[in-house]
Amino acid sequence: MTTSIRDAARELTGGSLTALLSPGVRVLGLGEPTHGVEAFLEVRNEIFRHLVEHEGYRSIALESDCLAGLAADAYAGGGAGALDEAMSRGFSHGFGASAANRELLSWMRAYNERSPSHDRLRFYGFDAPLEPAGPAGPRPVLTALHDYLSAHLDLPVTRETLDGLLGPEEPWTDPAALTDPARSVGGGPEVKELRLIADDLGALLTAHAPHLTAATSPDDWWRADLYARTAAGLLRYHAGMADPSSARLGRLMSQRDAMMAGNLDAVVRREARRGPTLAFAHNRHLQRDKSHLWFANVPIQWWSAGAILATRLGDAYAFAAATFGARGADVPAPGTLEGILSALPHARAVVDPARLVAALGEKPAPRVPVDHTYLALDPATVHQADAIVFLKEI
């Protein structure tokens, strides 16, 4: 390994990571290359503690259900209930079983117990309610939005009409609709009417924001806005599930990340006067370049939530991509990016992508992982990241 490549890397600490970022960052997107590896979550926790204690960060947003995140945030803020309940109700995708997520929530609660209310840490989920078994139905968020507005405004639709259009829950959550568009309720006339209603209610929420905020509270209005975004997004997603064209999966991925970007944008606006936010998700949801994967031998491409947010924030958005060297028998070839980084002297390193690319000269070969759940970094686009977090072995 040349000295210049060694010079592009430092031992991973919170300080060595933030040294690579511009001072005006409002959202730091920290990626992981695969789910279910505690080592990346442990690194995330370590970095978040540094960001809170030394860089003024006051919130964290995870790739987890935005509605479930309300329960996790309530616990972190000192709310009633046991930690086990918060882990069960506050995370989606099985992430509540993670020991590192449990440690994160416990640390946040302890920090908040010794901090004034205006300085408390907030927890957000920024994913849509889209479990692997399929999307949630819109009833809880649409009715909650209606209830909030109807307490203060005359609405163009009654709760009874809304309930009739929503119908029973089972068709909304039919897992067969994931692979069979004909099983989706999204193409029915009721969904088309519900999309118009959700749009109208969201517009009323915005138009009457001064009155509603004064009559309730800024936090209550923010939560209602979350319901409005989620209701509109879920109805749009269900309509997309009914699309029988070959572009269906790509459009669904695009819709999901657009919802994620909308949630992150709302977090940025809410946290504007308090401090920056750490967003943690898969690299594919945070990278600036176009995301892609193969599903059932079909190539899918979409713009990630991070790429969308970066168009709004510019240099105030930063992305740190994470990857690893060896995992059991899955050892990167020497000529790949991960193979080259594996020769670094650090077990955990943070790498300056610009200096790394300059030192490499020619682009390394792409890694072909043994495990299909791991998506390797694209050597052709690593320069678009602000940092690379590398773990030599997991």
Automatic annotation (TrEMBL):
Keywords: Hydrolase. InterPro entries: Emycin_Estase, Hydrolase/PRTase-associated, UCP036794_erythomycin. Its EC number is 3.1.1.-. It is an enzyme of class 3 (hydrolase). The keyword Hydrolase applies. It comes from the Bacteria. One of its GO terms (molecular function) is hydrolase activity. This is Erythromycin esterase family protein. It comes from Nonomuraea spiralis.
